[in-house]
Structures are given as structure tokens and as C-alpha cells.
Amino acid sequence: MADDDKNICNILKSQLQSENYKTEEFLNGQDLLNRFKEKPCELIITDIMMPNMSGYELCRAIRDISNVPIIMISAKDEEIDKILGLELGSDDYISKPFSLREVTIKARNMLRRANNHSFNTDNTDEKLILKDLEIIKSRRAILIHGQELKVTTKEYELLELLIENKNKPFSRESIIEKVWGYDYYGDTRQVDHLIKRLRKKMLLEGSECKIETLWGYGYKVSD
């Protein structure tokens, strides 16, 4: 965790350690990044405004080397903060002042889903294929024209959900539940920005597979 407010670090540390998670706290993004390069972790929670290296810069640097889940904490409940964080590759965001229960739920679900994928040996050789896009479940890999597409954890899980259920429409709320794994909190913008990131990556690779928007409802892919 990184936050230049030591009190917030201590509050988060106390809450997460009470849930039996091991934590390390840093007062800026650069120190967290240096530590991550020495010893990767399973989840990053970072503030946005910090000295030496902001949460945005940290997110960009982490995404260059890892797909570890990232939760960003925004001091202001402003859409632009959240949009930029999501577009840089964060998986979720929390607005200050925040609920410790919300932090716990989001952290717990992200870690549980990551661990379930790590140890799940079912469908080892299963592949999902739609047009020029192929998903290899055992590797959690997405291929377009045989070339692997670099994606974050949430990007992979969302595309796997849509491809595995092709032609089935999903509401934003149901995507939140299935991909993020927690009860709907009333804000589904992270779904839209995750879709935007995926579409951009797929477009750059010239994929024939398209994610369709169902206006006022959600998304689907069609064969």
C-alpha cells in the first residue's frame, strides 16, 4: 500500500491485518515500486497524489512489468481521477473518505479470485475461439492472429466472460458481480473504461472480434 498520509496507511494496515493479510506500507509510489521489483505482491492499493511518484505514475510503471491487481484511492470524488486511473490500467478505485468495509470486500474478492485462478486445474487444455481471437484458459492468455495480447487481470476476466458466453448480453451490474466479485455499489463506470481499454487493444491488433454495446444495458460479443 502507498499513501503519503501515514494515518491512512496505519488504518488500512490495521484493517487488512485483522483479516489476516500481510501488508507493507510506503509513503510514496517510488518506494513501493522499488520494493515490488525486489519482491512482487498479490495486490496493490495506492493513493493518487503522492510525492516522488504519483499513483498514476506508479500504475503505469507497474503495468509495464506486471498484471497484479491495482486499487487506486482518489482523494477527490471526481470522475477525471477515476477515468485516468482506469485508463492507465488500475482494476478498481475507492473514493476518500472511504468505508473500511468496502476496502476489505474489494481486496478480499480480488485476492480470492486471483488465488482461485492460480490453483484451479480444471479445463487445463480448454480453449475459447471466436473468429481470430483465442483464449487459452490454462495460461490465462488471449491470442489474436496467434500473437499474445497483453492484458490486465480484469481485462482477461471480462473478455473470457464475454467470449465464453457469446451472443449473451450482460448488464453492467452483472459484469461488476462476475468480474469484480462484489455487490453492486451504484457506479459502473469501471466497466465502461475496461471495455474501452480492451477495444483499443483489440483494434490495434486488427481483431475481427468486436465487443458490442447494448445502449442503456451493457455489452456482448456475437459470432
From TrEMBL:
It comes from the Bacteria. Gene3D superfamilies: 3.40.50.2300, 6.10.250.690, Winged helix-like DNA-binding domain superfamily/Winged helix DNA-binding domain. Keywords: DNA-binding, Phosphoprotein, Transcription, Transcription regulation, Two-component regulatory system. The keyword Transcription regulation applies. Residues 125-223 form the OmpR/PhoB-type domain. Residues 125-223 bind DNA. The modification 4-aspartylphosphate is found at D47. CDD domains: REC_OmpR, trans_reg_C. Residues 1-111 form the Response regulatory domain. May play the central regulatory role in sporulation. It may be an element of the effector pathway responsible for the activation of sporulation genes in response to nutritional stress. Spo0A may act in concert with spo0H (a sigma factor) to control the expression of some genes that are critical to the sporulation process. This is Stage 0 sporulation protein A homolog. It comes from Romboutsia sedimentorum.
